Amino acid sequence: MADDRYQGHDYYLVDDLLTEEHKLIRETVRTWVKQNVSPIIEEYAQKAEFPIHLLKGLGEIGAFGPYIPAEYGGPGLDQISYGIIMQELERCDSGLRSTASVQSSLVMFPIWSYATEAQKQKWLPKLATGELLGCFGLTEPDHGSNPNGMVTNFKDAGDHVILNGAKMWISNAPFADIAVVWAKDEEGTIRGLVVERGMEGFTTPTTHGKWSLRASATGELVFDNVKVPKANLFPDIRGLKGPLSCLNSARYGIAWGALGAALDCYDTALRYSKERIQFGKPIGSFQLQQKKLAEMITEITKAQLLVWRLGVLKNDHRASPQQISMAKRNNVEIALRTAREARQMLGGMGITGEYPIMRHMMNLESVVTYEGTHDIHLLITGMDVTGFNAFN
Ligand SMILES: Cc1cc2nc3c(=O)[nH]c(=O)nc-3n(C[C@H](O)[C@H](O)[C@H](O)COP(=O)(O)OP(=O)(O)OC[C@H]3O[C@@H](n4cnc5c(N)ncnc54)[C@H](O)[C@@H]3O)c2cc1C
Asked: What pLDDT is stored for residue 143 in this prediction?
């Protein structure tokens, strides 16, 4: 992907709904991505390595906690800006966007929302610049879609607590300086606490062998009688609504982000269809290829309108978790479908690293599963419209 010719696509003039600031932010992130990430992303994905040197640059373009106010080191942008940044990052690679999503919505958001003033001052400014990297531990080996069943727990021990248990599938874990961890107290109530690298008994083994999100580091969080100071506990938040509020924010970013991957696949396939000659003609002149492209841009356009409207609602604090769920599910689904169709349009070239499509397609297989699987989001919509809970 060294030759990044992406231009953006706006079939319904959705740009008219954005402010000049939104467009400037998009241009800034796109330029940064083209200069710093596009030339190296394929190589890092192939060798399954996280490009850790990009953290500082991600901080500089405002990708870490875009909506965190300036008093805590963030750029204080609105929710549409947050979405645009995630879209431009995922236009290049879902792993890159995952790192920024986790840092923003799963680490900075809970600290900003639930931490004490001292905890905020301690961590937020350094997370905003990328000096510190965070991760979020909710999923466990035996509790994925049903996090309420978690067994990771802590016991009171005076000025600290003793934490035991394990989390798995944790993005950023192998390199993270801090982990926002959700665990049960002695009453079985879910609480949030910050575990710091270097605490005795805390290890973060890397998950190897992924065919997806290869440029994003994934690992476990293992807690073996870890002494965590009580000063690291979030004081007031109790129950599943703590982690779910973080997931809401991250899922919102994913709805925008996945659309970035779809746009990149469409852009690549459209250009290829005009340049690739078979039977004496560009393949884009054949009806079957046009059908694929026409359907892609139709779904992309609907998804662009969906996230823009969701952004307006989110700015007004009116976006419901169910609306966010619908957008996450829809946009990841259309991105995955776009990637699969686009890959076919490139024939054999579609499976190579010369083009980004296969990497997007494999990445999206994780995006469709994490932050609530495709089917779980369908059940959320189903329950919202019928009033019946089909989860259990
Ligand atoms: C690359 C990657 C990065 C991740 N990063 C993080 C992270 O940073 N932090 C974190 O905490 N987690 C993370 N996750 C975990 C992710 O959120 C979980 O994988 C996801 O929630 C699904 O859980 P599971 O894998 O245990 O699947 P399961 O819950 O075991 O589900 C398996 C299948 O059963 C279906 N299913 C489950 N329950 C029902 C039901 N009631 N009705 C119908 N079908 C059902 C699911 O839809 C799915 O298809 C990550 C995952 C991946 C792959």
From this structure: 98
With CA atoms as reference, report the closest residue to 337 among 256, 268, 259. 259
- Exactly one of 90, 220, 341, 371 is catalytic; name it: 371
Fold type of domain 135-232: Butyryl-CoA Dehydrogenase, subunit A; domain 2 (2.40.110)
- Residue 186 annotated among the catalytic residues of the structure: no
Residue 165 pLDDT level (bands cut at 50, 70, 90): very high
Q: Is 207 in the pocket of ligand 1 (CB under 6 A)?
A: no
> Does 341 score more than 90 pLDDT?
yes
- Number of helices and strands in the chain (H, E): 12, 9
Tell me 206's DSSP state: B
Pocket lining: 204 vs ligand 1, CB cutoff 6 Å = no
Six-digit token string for 180 = 């926002």
Q: What is the pLDDT of residues 87-115, one digit of tens each?
A: 999 999 999 999 999 999 999 999 999 99
Nearest to 98 by CA among 16, 215, 194, 6: 215
Mean pLDDT of 310-327: 98
Using a 6 Å cutoff on CB, does residue 370 contact ligand 1?
yes
Pick the CATH number of 241-386 from 3.30.70.260, 3.40.50.620, 1.20.140.10, 1.10.10.10: 1.20.140.10
In the chain, which segments carry CATH 1.10.540.10? 14-133
Query: Is it the case that residue 148 has pLDDT exceeding 70?
Result: yes
**Quick one: which atom of ligand 1 is closest to the CA of 373?**
47
